[in-house]
Amino acid sequence: MNAIRTGWFLALRQIRRGGKGTTILIIFIMVLTFLNLVVVSGLLLGLITGSFEQFRESYSGEVIITSAPLRDYIENTSALISYLENHPKVTAISPRHSVGVSILGTLNDLPGKNERQNKISTRLVGIDPDKEEVLTGFSRFIIKGEPLVAGEEGYIVMGYNFLRKYSSFADANIPGLDLLADVDVGSRVKVTLSTKDGGIVSKDFIVKGIAKSKIDEVSTRMFINDSELKRMLPVNKEQYQEIAIKTDPDFAPDLVHELEEFHKPYAARIQTSGAAIPSFLRDIETTMAVLGNALSSIALVVASITIFIVVFINAVTKRKFIGIMKGIGISPLAIEISYILQAFFYGISGSIIGLILTFGVLKPYFDAYPINFPFSDGILVATASGAGIRVLILLVVTLIAGYVPAKLIVRRNTLDAILGR
Questions:
Q1: Domain map of the chain by residue range?
Q2: Are 222 and 74 in contact (CB under 8 A)?
């Protein structure tokens, strides 16, 4: 205890009487190191986490029910929808019909010789505009034209990525990728779906709006009113292919369990939004985490070397002073503790300022103004627990970097230190 009290006194005196410029510079380096530990890895993860958030907010809700493998629809959907509509924790649902169709974009002109038809194959989704608006805010995806209105017929909203005028792939020569040319708001297109018995159902639609989103479930699909799509379907008109559910995110796993119990006799795939994320995105998330940790490790090495050099130079320049302190009876342990406490001061000061900048400035800023990437809106992923672990790592590294040079100087012969030999 005497060594600790003496070490505290010596450390406090040295910090107070040390150069303010040097102290500020060291703390600034520690702040940058902390930000490198938290912010850089957080932004890398935020690129993928932003796409997860958009998947949930723009398509799936907190829980998504889809047809089981090798099934064309969700069985017993009428009872399932009734159960969801009366569930106290469910705030909104959006049942959707979904069917594969071909869309012809040119109704008047025939293709020239050796030219393919102005035609694509995609998914046509029937939605209830009012329910979809509550769950995903579908109208916010409309970049041109107008959204669908409940009750109207003969209109279609098209995902922008299949239109040559708007698609991100329009300037890429990708074999097998077909885009509709000369199709815009007000154009007339022909939608054709094939039945299992070989029949053909076709209908003309007027393009009412163009939808753009950073998730494929919006940007590569076409949308019409659900009531109109039902009349085009030859069978299973009341059986849906998707049901998106909005609820409390913390309650979502429990709701999945409840729905599995309720729907047990029938086939369906019931998942939380996180479980429905494609596996390749999860792999990218893991890669980003590894890359962020690698960059953070480099920052830790730089910080530890900086602290080592600062403490070592400080101890070398005060070698005679250290020898005198040992000569008058101050224990080597107290002197070592004083340098350890100085290093701790630099580390804790940098961490506190870094925490304030991260959670008080940077995280609110990136939440309000996400980074606009082609595939997501990048945010800063930073949690209190994760930041706490990084603070602990930074302090441990800093303490070791402060202890080693102090130990090297203090263990030298006292008389040699006093005489400068």
A1: 2-55+281-419, 68-267
A2: no
